[in-house]
Amino acid sequence: MDAMAEIRQTFFEECAEQLAELEAGLLAIENGEADSDTVNAVFRAVHSIKGGAGAFSLDDLVRFAHIFETTLDELRSDRMEASDVVIKVMLRAADALADLVTVARDGGTADASRNEGLAAELKELVAAAKGESPADAATDAPAPEDSADSADSADDDFGFVPVAVDLDELIGGGGGGDQAYRIIFRPHAALYAKANDSVRVLRDLLELGEGNVQCDTSEIPLLSDLDPEGAYFTFTVDLTTTENEEKIREVFEFVEDDCDLSIERILDSDTGSADGAVDVDSDLADLLASLRGEAASEAAADAAPAAKAAKADKPKASMPVTADQPAPTTAAAATPAASAAAPVSAPAKADAAEAKSGNVGGSPTQTIRVDLERVDRLIDLVGELVIHQVMLSQRTYQAGLARASEVAVGLDELEQLTREIQDSVMAIRAQPVKSVFQRLPRLAREVAEISGKTVRLVTEGEWTEVDKTVIERLADPLTHMLRNAIDHGLEKPDVRLAAGKPEEGTVKVAAMHRSGRIVIEITDDGAGINRPKVREIAIAKGLVAAEANLSDEEIDNLIFMPGFSTASEISELSGRGVGMDVVKRSIQALGGRVSITSKPGKGSTFTMSLPLTLAVLDGMIVTVGDQTAVVPLTAIIETLQPKPEEVKGFGGDARLIKVRDAFLPLVDVGRELAYTTTPTNATTGVAILVEAENGTRSALLVDAIQGQRQVVIKSLEANYRRVPGIAAATILGDGRVALILDVDVIVATSRTDGIHSNGLQQAAE
Amino acid sequence: MSRTILTIDDSRTMREMLRATLTSSGFIVVQAEDGAHGIEVLQGMEVEPDVIITDINMPRKDGFQFIEEVRVDPSRRAIPILVLTTESDAEKKQRARLAGATGWIVKPFDPVKLLDAINRVAA
Amino acid sequence: MTNQIANPAENDNKGEGNGRELIAFRIGEQEFCVDIMSVREIRGWTAATPLPHAPSYVNGVINLRGAVLPIVDLAARLGFARTEASARSVIIVVRAEHQLFGLLVDAVSDILTVTDDALQPTPDIASELAKQFVRGVMAIEGRMISLIATDNVLPQLQAAA
Questions:
Q1: Is the dihedral of CA A707, A711, A715, A719 positive or negative?
Q2: CA–CA distance from C10 to each of C5, C95, C115 (Å)?
Q3: Which fold has domain C19-150?
Q4: ipTM
Q5: A723, C70: Cβ pair inside 8 Å?
Q6: B 47-76: CB under 8 A from A
Q7: What CATH code is carried by the domain that includes residue B44?
Q8: Is B16 in Cβ contact with A149 (below 8 Å)?
Q9: What residue in C sits closest to A734 (Cα-Cα)?
Q10: One GO biological process from the UniProt record (chain B) (predicted)?
Q11: Are A214 and A236 in contact (CB under 8 A)?
Q12: Which of A384, A586, A735 sits opposite C161 (nearest CB)?
């Protein structure tokens, strides 16, 4: 990628960060949680975006950012109050800015009328703050400047109105032949204090043409009164040049406030002193050059300004230089000396400083930026390492090595080490869900606006960490569920008021860790699921039998069935949106699950649970028929050896097992997976007590337990597709593939009225 | 004979743009992320940079404060400092001048003008 | 036996006027072939871990250097009797779109180079099933070899998520 393209990418990355800061800052101000720096940070965020946008000539973005920035300037200077109304406008402006960034990055068109409307609102705010009419506010910052600010020019009626003046015309005959000028330049001390250098200025001036320099040293006081940082010289330059006065003035651009400057055209009859200019000029150049060379050999220090001044006055054929100049001529310009010395040590120092600036980064925790590909590769390799370590252990024991021997001890240590490496490596990719949660406030605002509701969004647990791969795929389902909660869950304001609820609905999105998984709940205080209606629709669409007896919970979860949709009202969102069944499937593809609970009149809660990482799992290795399978440890409560009297038949092939005082369903895993055709022998097998997402308990019946270990998860979807009842696959020590069971699904399908081995079959179709 | 430039800007994009332009013209570029960091980095440089280019709006310590501090330090004050301003804002320029800036460059910067400004203030 | 074929994408198989290279293999008494461009490697047989309730032509999955690879019994897929896999069976690892999977066949016979015009349309008497992924037939040295297109061998079910 070429340099510019790379920087452009950096710019958009940075924009994303700045936009997040911007929104977070504005929300903090809205919630009264802002401190003195928040407003500045918000200003800087927009300022930064504008700066970069200008560099890439993204004019629309620059224009809007500029207006936004100006408004924020009023805010940070305390000329505008951060009222609720103001902040709401700012938030919308932030959204518009984000859209413009997206358009700049990806193409497409922005919503011009919305943006212009917002811009107008911002201008009004500024005008109000300044106590002016909006028209006046638009012509702020009068200074006419060169065209570097193309974005601020003509199109922008708010900002600068550059006044281009063609001085060529004024001076007349400019650009044609030579003109003679007399320039009188008297630096003030301040000029040197700012590290400006009159020699350089004169040099630059002389580059415009030909001329000579005369220095009036009459103001130099006696040594005892000399201020080493004082300025005592007046230079008179007679310059012949084809350039116009504007160009001449430009040379003095940086110093014009710190000097007395006069530039006059000399009419031809006056060229007296300009005679012989050529000779003097080359002498001057030589002298200046030799001065530099000479100065390099001398010591430096504080007399630098005086040294520069003294240098300037040294030269000249036509110069009455008093020989008793103050000694500091020897004080060679620190700059040339330093420049000479600099190249030698600069590279080393620059490296050190660079390394330092790279490392320190201005913040306490050090971070480095790493290519994601490298991290992924590392994780893959560590996964392979784990597999091979397990294989090694197994084969060693199979070869008959005693478990207490040194080799065995070494192998155990190796296993510990490998696990630690794996944990550390997985932690690299773990990220807080904050990055996904960040988009939610804006989404909530938009959905609320379109659906005509008012919403307050509360988020919790944004620092809960999850593997990066999971995070990325969380965004879509989360978005859809939030849309659903606001659009379908919450009632319209008048309905809410009538029901005695506050007009503003509340949606809470909370993330937490629970039994080795990450759980995200989206709760709304809306009307809850309209069960009769849902049931009706499901029956009408043939998703359930008319006479089926469904529990409340089962009715609620009907919305996840394929083909179900509550878009009987056409809402803009549903049209664009996807059904809950797609949401469910995308979550399941991640190895997660989703369910809904609801209380009529009070609200609903979507619960989404996902594995913390898509890469490893602690599992129990079991024998099912003639195959080996893995049961995730997080689902397991305990294992039991059933006694004959504890197992009861229950109609057909179904069996129950008595565990302490309860009878739990005994799920024949072999039958569910169609690995076996005859029922598994309960008394010779093992019962694994498991708890499903909804808290119900069952026992999985398998033939034997082989052991427990951490396995590397391999995806089935990568090369095949999702298999119901199977969460993923793994590679065992012997190199064979073992399937990792999706306990909830297996249990659920085994319970479906009297359907056993057919349960999964139906799910598969 | 390479010259060293210290660039101070809180925007990563701007830092990289400056670096790209300056290194391709043979400068050695040292970076800092804000005014406070700039002071730290500057103090850590045994041989001072030939020029400092600094942004104005930055967290912790802004450009004005940075310049003022540099100008107060006897060992560092002779270093030419250019400020980056985003517009031809006379007020900003004035403040920059008062703080002790040697000159300025307007953002978005034209590489030619940038080098020109550098040459004007540094040997 | 594992023969790895260096990335076929590097073989310039296109438009030198010469058509393409194919790997021919046997299922029972019949011969088929696939475009070498879609073949990743050829391996000996390993027993697959069965997948519950999978279609009858999916034998299960095997471990291919750390990746989980489904194995398709091509005979069953074509509507013939299931293959009696043995140690002499061969798995041809192919890539279709974004997936890798293995074709279980009886033996690999040749690598052929054919011109494009050698391909004739599939005869009408072929079964509907076969027509789904037989791209055409060729007559080579008196043998009839059917060209299999790997894209449809493993149907894509739910494309969502």
A1: negative
A2: 10, 15, 19
A3: OB fold (Dihydrolipoamide Acetyltransferase, E2P) (2.40.50)
A4: 0.89
A5: no
A6: 47-48, 50, 57-60, 71, 74
A7: 3.40.50.2300
A8: no
A9: C63
A10: phosphorelay signal transduction system
A11: yes
A12: A586
